[in-house]
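yo

u said u wanted the structure for the complex thing, so here. seqs first:
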Amino acid sequence: MDERVREHAEVLVDWSARVEAGDDVVVSVGPDAHELAVAVAEKLGERGANLCTTYSSGEIERAYLRAHDEEFDDGADHELALFENADVYLSLGGARNTSATADVPSETRQAQRRARQDVREARFDTRWVSTVHPTRSLAQQANMSYEEYQEFAYDAISRDWESLADEMGNLKELLDEGEEVRLVSSGTDLTMRIDDRTAVNSAASVAYDSHNLPSGEVFTAPYATDGTVTFDVPMTLNGETVRDVRLEFSDGEVVDHAAEQGADVVDEILETDDGASRLGELGIGMNRGIDRYTDNILFDEKMGDTVHLAVGRAYDACLPVGESGNESAVHVDMITDVSEDSRLEIDGEVVQRNGLFRWENGFSE
Amino acid sequence: MDERVREHAEVLVDWSARVEAGDDVVVSVGPDAHELAVAVAEKLGERGANLCTTYSSGEIERAYLRAHDEEFDDGADHELALFENADVYLSLGGARNTSATADVPSETRQAQRRARQDVREARFDTRWVSTVHPTRSLAQQANMSYEEYQEFAYDAISRDWESLADEMGNLKELLDEGEEVRLVSSGTDLTMRIDDRTAVNSAASVAYDSHNLPSGEVFTAPYATDGTVTFDVPMTLNGETVRDVRLEFSDGEVVDHAAEQGADVVDEILETDDGASRLGELGIGMNRGIDRYTDNILFDEKMGDTVHLAVGRAYDACLPVGESGNESAVHVDMITDVSEDSRLEIDGEVVQRNGLFRWENGFSE
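structre next:
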């Protein structure tokens, strides 16, 4: 076995999920994530955790959903019970075809999503972590060879997380103390309120309220957004390429929008519900192991020198206890490059210019 | 998809497990059983059942068990809860390597087995069915090409189960009414008591207390065995080939034994515990779709023209309600060919001679 697979498993089990003896762990395995699952099982055996392995296949999901009449009862008590009794949930993504569910009607998907809300919530109540095994299908989606993609993915995953967490702590502190953020870049001049909000230092560990591996971003839940933003990093949304999306906000709400490509998909997303035209997240990518766009949001949104905003649902972790932020059935991240002609200000003070943070060498006010 | 895979799924879901709308179904998928899992998911979608898919990989099990210190706590509450809340459990075997766990110490395996007794019982409390997807590894174990093995397997699985169930009902009736069975064949003359015992018409359906697909055997739980039996169908037990095992019984217990090959494995099995040297099962194979030995007990024991006996644990379904039969940690089936120079008698009446049953053309008293 490739030593990098073992290292990935070790980071996931120890740093990310903080697995301990006696933990009841659910490991979800994608069809091409088998090798990572073997390495994770070894680590879980060493730690003395209890392992239950589930199988997550787009092809199985597609066959099931297309055959279903869409009358989902509130059942799945067995799956609910599984997660209600689990301490840890590790999702090892590894599709053979990232478009495997492309011809499932979105109504069916949404109907099942509604019926399984309780299962999803039970899963989020565990120490859950999502990661992916670098597969050929992900390499293809990234327009990369398999070997090249493996190197890319392991660079992103095998960070010195402890020291990145320390560095990201600087930004979290500034965001927690700040009241207003302003982002200025080519095609972008946007202000957002963040007072009372708590930033998450997303250091790829449940100990930091962070549930992705790789991670490496600091995010919060902004509101009262005003101005214009242009997302110049392309991405696939609902199966379509979307490029150069421009959103204009007034008093927190999108009042105008356009896109060079994929405008219809953006329309669709913004029209989902009321919350879909308000921001749910402002995130600052700080993982410099991720140096290129690979059309996979797990990696893209953490890329160094980028900032992303999501329309839709806000994360509870960013909100005052008991308060609910922007609510929506969607949470769609879009990304903008801030490596040039850009600055991020908090309460009028520049904290990042052209990708460099104020605590870094070469930063200029 | 091969139409035979769809048919396999349909038999499994409808005939075997009797799945209905709203059933909470756990489907366990072997690494090479993916295609069958897709077909099963389609059927479950059509029926409106709820699907939770688990992944059963020998390689994952091996990595986990070899890394474990053998101190299994009684945990795995999450897996227990999954099965306690399930209506149906479908196991789709499909290993890539049927020897994947060969180097797991048997003590570790046994320690885990003991710790997971409750999970196993919860699984047996569902409408459970075990089947296999015909894989290359099973073809190899059977000494067959892949295509040849597929044909073999689907012949065994795609029976007219309704009419086989009717036919097997004849034998069940004779066994239920009978008091003593005598089996005479080359190297075999054995008598067993069966009064008070109930035979299972194992017609590959939970509606018949039958949990294997394929099935096609009638079995009961004999006792007070006397005489000698020779098992001339070879098989792999605990990783070793075992051939021409001879057991001599007196008053229910093995008093002498020998084997042409693999005698040490037979020793080991018989010495497991007290119950391991008494019979737990007498089974008569009646699936004529299975016409050859493939070193897979799921198929071999149902082969037409064979009789098998198991040392070890008896099935509750064969015993008077509330009574416990032979108890043991093992249940090891061994098979004898009865196509020639053989007869099976119940209370002195010949019911099968040289493979032919008394209700068949050509049968001679």
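Chain B touches chain A through 50 residues (CB under 8 Å). The radius of gyration of chain B is 20 Å.
cya
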